[in-house]
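Input/output pair, single chain:
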Amino acid sequence: MTTYIIRRVLQMLLVLLIVTIIVFLMVRLLPGDPILMFLSRTDVEEITFEQVERMRQDLGLDRPMVVQYFDWMLGIVQGDLGISIIHRGEVADDVIRRLPITLHIGGLAFILGIVVGIPLGVISAVRRGTWLDSLLTFLGNLGLTIPAFWLGILLIYLFGLRLDWLPIFGYTSPFKDFWLNTKEIILPVFVLATSPIATSVRLTRSSMLEVMRQDYIRTAWAKGLQEQRVIIGHALKNGLLPVVTLKGMSLAAIVGGSVVIETVFSIPGMGRLAVEALFSQDYPVVQATLLVGGIVTLMANLIVDLSYGWLDPR
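Output:
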């Protein structure tokens, strides 16, 4: 097991290196010039070519791309993600300030997808063909088809504007005001958790139905074991294998999938930071957000692979 873990970690580092190269090239190949973001229309008309080149030199954009890449990688190894082109602040400070917000909301949505979606999927499989199975299947299909931005706007209108029960935008640290934070994250967490819950219900149901047709499950029933022991002790563990893969993908989507939610609810997280940096062509910030997303994805894949070893010792 130790050898397997070491091999997977080395593979993860190699993939991470490839991710950094792809991220760097993608950002640099975007159309437009970030220097122009500094300038007003009047400045663009009056500034000279020499002044533009001097600004580009000050920002390090005049150097060859290979040199820029290795400088960026050296900074990453030292914990330095660079300086923002637009507001001239440390990119690492932005990431440290905004990443916990995204992890807070995304983590709660991820947990809801597990503690709500998997049990409902098991219930739907065990009660196959009943009205409860039909209801859960319908709700699962509905959760998959509803666009997140539309659901968010609908909930804002209903619970924020019409009923005035919950705040419709913003984020307050739970260490500053726990009750206000709780009210602020109810809507975004619910919207973000809708798709994970729906996919968990559907995949858990189909996986459990397949497992429950196996011979060893029929043998367990023939021995007269209680339903709870057959379902939880024999069927659930093997039925969770495809669900674990799905949950790994959901975990990887915590950072990337928060873009729409954070934009709709005006939450200052990593997703909104990525959108703002992309539109302003702030290279270092875009690179940092994509790199963080890549690291989360690789870590999620590693956790999934290690979970397979526990669920299926073969």
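The CA atoms of residues 122 and 209 lie 9 Å apart. The chain has 15 helices and no strands.
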